[in-house]
Amino acid sequence: MLRRTGDAVSDHDGVRVSRRTLFRLSGAAAVGAVVGVPLAGFGAPLTAGAAEACNALMHQDGFGSPTVGSWLESDFDSTSLRIPAGSRWDDAALFNPSRFAIVPDPAGSAESVMRFTVPGNGSAYRAELMRRQLSYGRYRFTVSVFVPQDFVPYRWDTIVAQWHAFRLPNGRDTNPPLALSIDTLAPVWDFRIAQLQPDLTTRITRYVLPVPVRYGAWTDWSFDIVWSTPTTPGRVVILQDGAEVLRFDGVNNYHQASSPYFQTGIYRPVWRNGYAPTAPVHIYHRGITIRDLTACATVPAPTGVPDAMTSDGERVVLSPLANDLAVGAATTVDPTSLRLVDADGALVTELDVPGEGLWSVDPATAQVSFAAAATFVGAVDPRSYRVRFVAADGTFQTFGSELTIEVRRAEITVPSGAVTSSGPGTVTLTPLAGVGDVNASTLRLVDPLTSEESSTVVLDGQGVFAAPGDGTVEFTPEVGFEGVASVGLVVDDRFDRAVVSSVTVSVIDNPRPAGLAPTEPGLSGASRSPGSPGSGGVGSAGAGVRDGRMLAATGGAVPSSLVALGVGAVVAGAALAGHDARTSSRSAD
Length: 589
Prior knowledge:
By secondary structure, the protein is mostly beta strands. The chain has three helices and 45 strands. The strands form nine sheets. It has a ten-stranded mixed sheet with strand order 1-4-16-15-14-13-20-11-7-8, with no helix packed on it. Strands 6, 9, 10, 12, 17, 18, 19 and 21 form an eight-stranded antiparallel sheet that branches. It is rod-shaped, with a radius of gyration of 41 Å. The protein starts with a strand and ends in a 13-residue tail after the last helix.
């Protein structure tokens, strides 16, 4: 993922850049040394073919030898000196000792390395070696850079490797099409790509690479470059310490008669604003090679195949590469590079998704496990993975697909409950006894007329059901009611699924007292919720008689049979105790 962070204007080699766009790489590329991350498309990798020319070594730095080797030019400030064949590093006429010196490895190995120096006198600005290549094609450049602890910070970039163009048709020098730099104020590594515009200005795109600037240590760089032409696309793939940190597809040079030439060392544009004389600036290089990969063949990329699995809530393990390898068996896949992609695009070996569960990668087995969160049920959001395959020439590309898991939890049931009650008193039922994985406080009743859920349901002519919030159900029969009363129940399990059941109460030995009028015909079994107008519950306005029922002085309608025996207080009390009264607003008219 590339994220634009700002615009600026820069200049280099005395040519002002009209536009400069700065991009910062996200964590998508900040991965371990065995993982490559494509940042601009997944094209097929280039691998070694049968031709001997593939991967041919064109150049080696020769710092461990007294002779210079195949370097063509030494450059310091405005001086450029051609290096004759057979030249030696100790030739002070070619290699100014204040700028170029073969020295022991500052990290302590027995290897000899090159120290480049720019004096801090305010006018010196570069010390570089140049190796020119004349043909277009595909090449790999390697260079190791040692930034010392006393490296002097600089407000502007310090270039350590660049691929330079030739003079433009108007005779002007211009920016290098490609350059690796250190911004030591941040500090960050950045790579810039310049593209020539019709007016012969250059548009520079800078990528801040997601790797730290390490002081007092070597950093190994590899640049796999396919030079673009007017008719063919180009590519730049950068590896840092073996990990891919940038992949760019597009125009990468000015399409001149010869491809850009390679320069490495140190370059500081001291003419820019804010520069002041400093102590000498040193940087060290080793491991510089150029290989010709133009003759290397192209092989197709493997195809990532999605993987899906179901889980009963227990930890599950997937082997996502098993079906991928069957599709791309002609390539070499590095199973230890298997990674998951997080929400920011970063490649990770562990990913905790809130509300879903924990993903984990075992690089040793190339397996992915998923442990669902205790309360999760259903399909997880598809999770992308990436893995790299390695070509015979050592280049690699990443591919991948998606993992999907559906977590299926066993259905929870609440058995229907039944109890026999004797007499007019309240009976308590415990329908959730012995039932696990339910939230007892969510138990509610279902109105049989409206199907609405409530904590209290009044059944005219039968009695009152109440759910007090502790997982129990209470039933208080009307005096004189004998028979069967039922109500539906709903309770949530720990996965927020609604579990439906019911309870039934059989009332016996509850005779109607002498002189008590029987319940009005047609009302037996009809439900009423306290608080509903005309429903017989607390909350109805006024007082009086309606359809044979007395309206209580509190404003609630109570069946006259209950009022006559003082049961109305039980009903009103249940409603006033805080029970929900949403069940029914239907009157008995």
